[in-house]
């Protein structure tokens, strides 16, 4: 397929409203053509809140991973982190689209990603902490991906078929993310004195934020078995530490919860960067 | 995907000491219900649902949609890749084509959709709708035999059987980076290859190198 051919196709798509290829705002609905009715018996409020929270975890997590672009230790690592971020971005798009269908507002993914301020986000705060060094990034990625994988495995049987399908698809991707993080944690923890010291520091920095993940029960209303997911996260966290020769402290959890809207000072600057182009040029597409 | 029980302990199988158990598990699960809908790894392009034969032009529509090429792996058609799920007439007479994304964030889906609409317009179908199907999720097991040959001919190693764990997804805790399935070199055929990175130029490919001929190559990783 020639580029010219492709451009013609995309232009034709844009004209009839069927699609547009744009890197910016103006993407088409990622749930295009999916049956979007909410089944009887599903609490639409709880479903919308969960989809929004899981979408926010993914969007904010993807943005932090993107901060490694041009700055990763190796080209291969940069590609990996960008790919992981891309998977999460795809999950966020689907989850935001579902949120807007269910909450009755009809908002689309752009509305959620670009037009909300920090206090409207519901991601866990671990996702928004500064990028940190590579060791901290791997500790955070392990925690977030292990927890999300455990939740998504359970949500694959959710009574809402759209959320269930998003979760079932995400499980396959998250298994690769978790494996990537665990591989690096073991290698760094089991490496030189310096790498082990920094990996331990990364674990110690992320550790106190895990309590917030374990305390989140918002998935229970959709069959998510939050307690089971929290236990699985704990086990992955500890087993990986053991294999890496790291110690897991009895960290006092930071009070509060991102799920309730409490934020660190780090989210607003992150969003300012993420949202700047969309807000400077509302509705722009190219 | 079966829902794990609510037990607070996770089965030890979550932490897999080696690959053999994972592969054995995958082998046991081959042909699970989610995949049985797509026999022989081929794409589930819908057959003539009303059984009235090809007189209604659907065969032509199906052929046009099947010939559209993947923008990132252009040696494959969307049918070869297994993302083309069905081609059928909707109640209003439009041709409805169902596509499934490979990865949630696959940026090629919009191109695939636009290209499919164009191909059907060119084939004489003015009313075309492309819908997205998320369930069941795409698997590399759906890449056709022809698609696998085309990948290999372009020096991209085709995927092996996709893992289908029914319980917790195994996590391998190993100090080496070669804990990935055995993949033969698409250039020299040697089985002595190692993984450089599980992520590569696109979401669906890993980067490997051959220890015999020393060439790096890409591998469509199992999902």
TrEMBL record, chain A:
Any one of the GO CC terms: cytosol
Pfam families assigned: PaaA_PaaC
Top-level taxon in the UniProt lineage: Bacteria
GO-annotated biological processes: phenylacetate catabolic process
Coiled coil segments of this chain: none
InterPro entries: Aromatic_CoA_ox/epox, Ferritin-like, Ferritin-like_SF, PaaA_PaaC, PaaC
Name of protein: Phenylacetate-CoA oxygenase subunit PaaI
């Amino acid at each position: 397929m020639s580029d010219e051919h492709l451009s013609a196709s995309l232009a034709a798509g844009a004209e009839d409203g069927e699609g547009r290829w744009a890197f910016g705002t103006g993407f088409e609905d990622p749930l295009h053509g999916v049956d979007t009715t909410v089944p009887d018996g599903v609490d639409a409020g709880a479903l919308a809140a969960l989809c929004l929270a899981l979408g926010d975890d993914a969007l904010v997590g993807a943005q932090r991973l993107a901060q490694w672009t041009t700055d990763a230790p190796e080209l291969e690592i940069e590609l990996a982190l960008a790919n992981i971020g891309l998977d999460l971005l795809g999950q966020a798009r689907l989850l935001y689209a579902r949120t807007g269908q269910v909450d009755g507002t009809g908002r689309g993914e752009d509305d959620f990603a670009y037009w909300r301020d920090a206090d409207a986000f519901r991601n866990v705060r671990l996702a928004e902490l500064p990028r940190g060094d590579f060791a901290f990034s791997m500790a955070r990625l392990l925690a977030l991906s292990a927890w999300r994988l455990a939740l998504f495995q359970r949500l694959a049987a959710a009574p809402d078929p759209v959320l269930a399908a998003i979760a079932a698809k995400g499980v396959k991707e998250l298994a690769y993310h978790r494996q990537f993080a665990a591989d690096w944690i073991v290698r760094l923890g089991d490496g030189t004195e310096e790498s082990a010291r920094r990996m331990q520091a990364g674990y110690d920095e992320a550790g106190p934020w895990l309590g917030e993940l374990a305390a989140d029960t918002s998935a229970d209303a959709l069959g998510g078995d939050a307690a089971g997911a929290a236990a699985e996260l704990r086990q992955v966290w500890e087993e990986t530490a053991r294999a890496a020769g790291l110690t897991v402290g009895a960290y006092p959890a930071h009070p509060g919860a991102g799920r309730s809207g409490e934020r660190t000072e780090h989210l607003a600057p992150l969003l300012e960067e993420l949202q700047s182009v969309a807000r400077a040029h509302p509705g722009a597409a190219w | 995907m079966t829902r794990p029980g609510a037990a607070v302990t996770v089965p030890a199988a979550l932490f897999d000491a080696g690959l053999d158990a994972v592969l054995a598990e995958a082998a046991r699960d081959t042909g699970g219900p989610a995949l049985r809908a797509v026999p022989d790894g081929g794409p589930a392009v819908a057959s003539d649902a009303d059984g009235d034969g090809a007189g209604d032009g659907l065969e032509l529509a199906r052929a046009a949609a099947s010939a559209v090429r993947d923008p990132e792996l252009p040696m494959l058609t969307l049918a070869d890749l297994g993302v083309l799920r069905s081609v059928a007439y909707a109640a209003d007479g439009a041709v409805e084509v169902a596509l499934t994304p490979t990865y949630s964030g696959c940026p090629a889906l919009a191109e695939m959709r636009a290209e499919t609409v164009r191909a059907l317009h060119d084939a004489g179908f003015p009313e075309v709708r492309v819908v997205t199907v998320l369930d069941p999720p795409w698997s590399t097991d759906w890449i056709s035999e022809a698609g696998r040959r085309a990948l290999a001919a372009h020096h991209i190693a085709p995927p092996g059987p996709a893992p289908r764990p029914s319980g917790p997804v195994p996590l391998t805790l190993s100090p080496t980076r070669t804990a990935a399935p055995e993949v033969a070199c698409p250039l020299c055929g040697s089985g002595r290859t190692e993984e450089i990175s599980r992520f590569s130029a696109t979401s669906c490919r890993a980067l490997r190198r051959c220890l015999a001929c020393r060439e790096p190559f890409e591998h469509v990783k199992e999902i």
